[in-house]
From TrEMBL:
<feature type="domain" description="YdbS-like PH">
    <location>
        <begin position="250"/>
        <end position="333"/>
    </location>
</feature>
<feature type="transmembrane region" description="Helical">
    <location>
        <begin position="43"/>
        <end position="64"/>
    </location>
</feature>
<feature type="domain" description="YdbS-like PH">
    <location>
        <begin position="63"/>
        <end position="144"/>
    </location>
</feature>
<feature type="domain" description="YdbS-like PH">
    <location>
        <begin position="400"/>
        <end position="476"/>
    </location>
</feature>
<dbReference type="InterPro" id="IPR005182">
    <property type="entry name" value="YdbS-like_PH"/>
</dbReference>
<feature type="region of interest" description="Disordered">
    <location>
        <begin position="484"/>
        <end position="503"/>
    </location>
</feature>
<feature type="transmembrane region" description="Helical">
    <location>
        <begin position="353"/>
        <end position="370"/>
    </location>
</feature>
<feature type="transmembrane region" description="Helical">
    <location>
        <begin position="225"/>
        <end position="246"/>
    </location>
</feature>
<protein>
    <submittedName>
        <fullName>PH domain-containing protein</fullName>
    </submittedName>
</protein>
<feature type="transmembrane region" description="Helical">
    <location>
        <begin position="376"/>
        <end position="396"/>
    </location>
</feature>
<keyword id="KW-1133">Transmembrane helix</keyword>
<dbReference type="InterPro" id="IPR014529">
    <property type="entry name" value="UCP026631"/>
</dbReference>
<keyword id="KW-0812">Transmembrane</keyword>
<dbReference type="Pfam" id="PF03703">
    <property type="entry name" value="bPH_2"/>
</dbReference>
<feature type="compositionally biased region" description="Basic and acidic residues">
    <location>
        <begin position="493"/>
        <end position="503"/>
    </location>
</feature>
<feature type="transmembrane region" description="Helical">
    <location>
        <begin position="178"/>
        <end position="198"/>
    </location>
</feature>
<keyword id="KW-0472">Membrane</keyword>
């Protein structure tokens, strides 16, 4: 494909609908809270029609000014922009990840969306073609893959399925998660409706509160706001679980040569490929409930990936499966077997105990002072804090016992967390930087915090080893230098052998 190509003609309509989809909620909210409240919704349809016409006009100009070209399988260039022109050229061998997406609107027109990510693009794709026909998308993806991986040019390799989510796993994965965004949105919506000066809203919330209190034994002593917030959290959780189940429906992971393929989605279908050689790290994640069921989750980060978005940016390879099955799949990426883990020094446990005890003492002092001005705090007996103080050594031990690490011959393993445990497997060859830091209190106990970073920036705040022995943390840098030096020596020896063979 050496000549300039354009997006599909129907992409104008699809992009215009996408533009409306982003603004409907905001417009409805503004019309609802303005004077006359619900009566203003009669202006919604004319507004959406005018908005769609304006969006279609803009997207028509965007379509006309957007061209792309793949030159001899070496680079892909895109010219775009209506007012501000932009010319991007990306070498094919720099592309880390290729994704194919189908939204409900694009599927009506038989179109698809192609995303290509390169190292360092954080949360945005470097190349985004919205929308092209499926044949064009598949041809482009095959061109990009065959150029980057010569061994698969013959197309004779077959994909091997590594994982397929079952209905039971899908339900557990959707329900056993905290859906932050839907819960926050639901609570904000309930608060906004209650505060609106509308008689219908007031009577409706009163009936809801009375019905809930009647259904609960003794109403559980919940106030009006307590009932509404509880209902909002439940509604947000339910909506979040349904959205996640729809998004991860039919999830399957397969391998073809050195490439992993993910496919999932019921309404919006996603198909993406991940080169194994570009994976910077893998991560196991679970919580106490999942651990009791023997289940865990496997994520991966590539050089083009990112965790800059806290809720929706992980590359999940296995949403939920038995620990043994997940470890087998992880070994498809990093063939490693670790020895027993090493825990941090016991003096760190004493430090945690003192920390938790000080927190309890501060809470007691704050309660004693504030209970004279707040009747709710006055109802809390001080014996509760005695129980918290008694639980401090248990909490300190759990915190200490859940932090471990292993310095393997080629890989680093970091494990930490109780309520949400994360375990990282990181090859030494992918570590871009390591940092050893000490706080004032750590210095007193000869403890330090070791943090490692890879090209999957930003890695995560959890990829650290807190409160490890300072001498051990310092020696990690020496171990890393020895590994790099050994690899360089092996590489030079191999290069000399090749040169002597040629001569």
């Amino acid at each position: 494909m050496s000549s300039d190509s354009r997006l599909h003609d129907a992409s104008i309509f699809c992009r215009a609908v996408d533009d409306i989809d982003r603004s409907v909620i905001v417009v409805v909210g503004l019309l609802f809270v303005y004077r006359d409240g619900i009566a203003n919704l009669r202006y919604l349809l004319p507004f959406l029609l005018l908005y769609f016409l304006a969006a279609a006009l803009w997207e028509s100009l965007y379509w006309y000014r957007f061209t792309y070209r793949v030159t001899d399988g070496e680079e892909i260039s895109i010219r775009s922009g209506v007012l501000h022109r932009r010319h991007r050229t990306v070498p094919v061998d720099r592309i880390e990840r290729v994704s194919v997406l189908e939204s409900p609107v694009s599927r009506l027109f038989g179109l698809t969306e192609l995303h290509c990510e390169t190292a360092g693009t954080r949360d945005k794709s470097e190349i985004k073609l919205r929308y092209v026909d499926p044949d064009t998308a598949n041809r482009l993806r095959q061109t990009l893959e065959s150029t980057r991986r010569d061994e698969q040019r013959d197309g004779q390799s077959t994909a091997t399925q590594l994982y397929r989510i079952s209905l039971r796993q899908l339900l557990a994965y959707s329900l056993f998660r905290i859906h932050h965004i839907p819960i926050i949105f639901a609570v904000g919506t309930v608060i906004s409706i209650v505060l609106l000066p509308i008689e219908a809203s007031t009577s409706f919330t009163a009936r809801v509160v009375m019905s809930v209190r009647a259904a609960l034994p003794g109403g559980l002593g919940l106030s009006k706001w307590g009932v509404l917030i509880l209902l909002a959290i439940g509604a947000g959780w339910t909506v979040g679980a349904i959205r996640l189940a729809i998004r991860m429906y039919g999830f399957q992971l397969s391998r073809n040569g050195d490439t992993l393929y993910r496919r999932h989605g019921l309404v919006s279908r996603v198909e993406e490929e991940i080169s194994i050689e570009n994976v910077q790290l893998v991560r196991y994640s679970d919580n106490p409930l999942l651990r009791s069921l023997g289940q865990t989750q496997l994520d991966a980060q590539t050089a083009g990936g990112s965790e800059i978005l806290p809720f929706d940016s992980r590359t999940s390879l296995v949403p939920l499966a038995r620990r043994a099955d997940v470890e087998e799949i992880a070994r498809q990426i990093f063939p490693v077997a670790f020895e027993d883990s090493v825990t941090i020094p016991k003096r760190a446990r004493r430090r945690y105990f003192v920390r938790y005890l000080l927190i309890v003492l501060l809470a007691v002092g704050g309660t004693i002072i504030a209970r004279e001005y707040n009747t709710v705090l006055a109802m809390i007996p001080l014996q509760v804090y005695l129980l918290l103080a008694a639980a401090a050594p248990v909490a300190a031990h759990i915190r200490w016992a859940t932090i471990s690490y292993v310095f393997g011959s080629e890989y680093l393993r970091i494990c930490g967390g109780f309520w949400w445990r994360r375990e990282y497997i990181i090859p030494y060859s992918n570590i871009q930087r390591h940092t050893v830091s000490q706080s004032i209190l750590q210095r007193r106990h000869s403890l330090s915090t070791l943090r490692v970073d890879t090209a999957a920036y930003p890695l995560s705040i959890g990829a650290i080893i807190p409160d490890m022995d300072t001498e051990t943390a310092t020696k990690f840098g020496e171990r890393l230098k020895q590994y790099v030096s050994s690899n360089n020596s092996d590489g030079n020896a191999t290069e000399r052998q090749r040169s002597s063979g040629v001569n």
